[in-house]
Amino acid sequence: MIALVGRIFREALEGLGSAGRMCVEAVRSSRDLRTWGPLATDQMRKLGVDSIPIGVLIAVFMGIVLALLASYSFTNSVPRYLVGTLVQKTVMMELAPVLTGLALAGRVGASIAAEIGTMRVTEQVDALETLAYDPIAYLVVPRILAGLVMFPVVVGVAMMVGLGAGWVASMGLLDLSSAQFLKGARLFFDDFDVRYGLVKAASFGVAVTAVGCACGLQTRGGAEGVGAAATRAVVTSAVLILVLDAFWAVVWLLGRAV
Amino acid sequence: MKQRSNDFVLGAVILGAIVLIVGVSMFLRESEIGTKRHRVTARFGDVGQVQVGNTVVIRGVKAGKVESIELTEGGWVHVRLALDEDIELPRDPVVLLGASSLFGEWQAIVMERQSVPKNRDVEAALAATRTAAATRDGVLAGAVLPDVAQLTTVAGGIAGDVASVAERFQVAFSDTAARELRASIRSVAQLSADLARTVRVQSKNLDTVSVDVRAGAADLSRAADAFLKTVARLDTATSAGEVRRIVQESERAATQVREAGARLNQITQSLEKTEAHLRSVMARADSVLVKVDQGQGTLGLLVNDPRLYQNTDSLLRELRDLIADVKKQPKRYFGFKIF
Question: Complex ipTM above 0.85?
């Protein structure tokens, strides 16, 4: 039992250490623009543009559910236009970044871990090193960069679509007029809401891609190891997303709370 | 070829996302690009919960937005309002800040000075912010209307007090208190039964009393009738002028009595003088009589000496004889000669 605890602790430390080392090497390898430059747009297309449909789908249902939930929660003493306020604030500041981030963690994180893990177990990574390619610059930097840039894009689109879905749902399902919804949405809107959501999304993108890359590079064994790496990448990314969500809330919202 | 396609799609998506995010944000902020506005600055001691972007209202109609809020010298806060270009300010304008609903929405209201709600604090704030320098610079006076939160705070305090009282009541309402309360309720029930009995007895007494009172009231009614008749007569007499005549005659009689009294007073005074005079006369007479009695003086001698009386008496007889003789023989005594 004690040995089990010790082993888990050691493996966690090893994972953190190797992830940290990989991040440091990624920063160092970011200077090798010629290696990762041509690959970055491809990764952005795969990780970001191709993820927009899933982000939009999540946002549509998120907006509808939020509008209905707000309407259900507000009693007669609360004005109906606050449905717009709740939808705007919740979608932009919390649900769009987190839900989209979790969805992309499953899609992108698992994909990266499986791809790099397969390259690791099939010794393609070793081949890159043999060919004098920096595997970090070739595999990790473009993916992290893609996550950093494209997660905010996907989340931004999801924010707007979620808000629009809530607007349409309020008019169609709740007999709320367009003016009422917009009044509520505009009531407490601040540019900070958008900035907060996008910065969180960027941090989630870096976390998901970095974890996927780290898990892929640490893959051992055959196909089983690749599957385990993909699973570990998804779980770790999801946990990291929630941790980062709390971190940003503490850092930004605590100071602004009156 | 594939790389160029990727770049194009990626660029389009990124630009589209940026345009979408910025456009929706501007739509939610109600940003108006190219719209001309004119600026008005108002001075406040405190701006409450007003924030940049809050609505500016004139007579209930949205007329602009709060553009900036900044601290200035002298501890004032200057709030700059961006009003629509075609908006005309009311005469003698002031700016009031207040909550537009119970949910934390604030707004700036531009209104005439005369239309400001009567409130001592608001009046004082407007007077303080309306200084000569501010008026010269075109800065409007401003004040913050009482916040709903203040009322809520007061209500919260009251609720806390009620909760405290309830808590104390809960503490005080122990088993012993409950037993005592039950005993008190029993006592109250007994007391109310006694009261009911007493009320029954007293109601009988009241019946009797009420009969007497009714009889008394009848007597009073009769007396009132008689009094009314008397008053009617008196009224009749008054209306005929008899009372006036009686009063006039009484006045005359009183005057006469007064005059008679004055005369009687004079007579009394005369009598007093006469009495004094008489007493003096009597004293002198007494003195004379005493002297006469003592044989002093001529009269005393005449009274007390019998010889003198006899001489006088004989003298008188001789005088009477003489007079008789004179009558008989006047020529004997009187001789008249002419020339």
Answer: no
